[in-house]
Design goal:
Layout (H helix, E strand, L loop, with lengths): L7 H7 L11 H7 L4 E10 L5 E9 L4 E8 L4 H11 L8 E4 L7 H9 L3 E4 L9 H13 L9 H17 L32 E3 L4 E2 L4 E2 L1 E2 L5 E3 L11 E3 L3 E2 L8 E3 L1
Amino acid sequence: MLGFEIAQSTVSKYMVRDRRPPSQSWRTFLQNHAEAIAAVDMCVVPTLNFERLFAFVVLGHGRRQLLWFEVTRHPTAEWLARQIIEAFPWASAPTYLVRDNDGAYGHVFSRRVMAMGIRDRPISPRSPWQNGHVERLIGTVRRECLDRMLIFGETHLRQILTLYASYYNESRTHLSLHKDTPLGRAVQRYAETLPLRPSCRGCIIATRGYDFRKGQVIYATVHLLLEITTGPLCPCRPRLFLRRTWQFPHSRRGGLHRT
């Protein structure tokens, strides 16, 4: 140009650069391909016998649906690969699979994912925020269920997670879904309600765990062996049973508290 030879470094120095990155960011990738993304992760659950159980969960980004879970004492690459097959049978496999860099995901797991036509997308090291959807799911399960219970063993934990998965997918609302559930539910404007129980002074009754659609409290069953009576008996809190009775919370606030 004009008879002058200009080096490439000089051109790149004075070239106007775009402030935006040349490719889409990680957040944009998750938003654009939400329906085709599944995320997996594992959490550690201690038991009453001081054992450690590993719960493997699979979450669909599109509807925040808990697609699959399983419990084991020793997660291996072969076991994790088998869980991917169980979670996505036939032609239901997603396009992308987001996971962390745990050492349990070995070459067997990677080859199985590739054979199923899934694009493996590990997150960056020490960056759990890149897999925030499933991290939030695990935090929700801990706050609303596991942190409030005593786990006796592998079978017991599997029963609890089965009941909670049904509650999470069918009854628990999500703000990202415009207060709908992952499996969807019809809006019921009218429902028969049950009369409130009489309360006594010093007790506060809130609506945690109350299903307003059916006018009933959501209960699950848990195997415990003891029956404990605490404090003076009252109509609203007569006893605390550790006998196959558990009430799932509907929100962080509420419940029965002693003042």
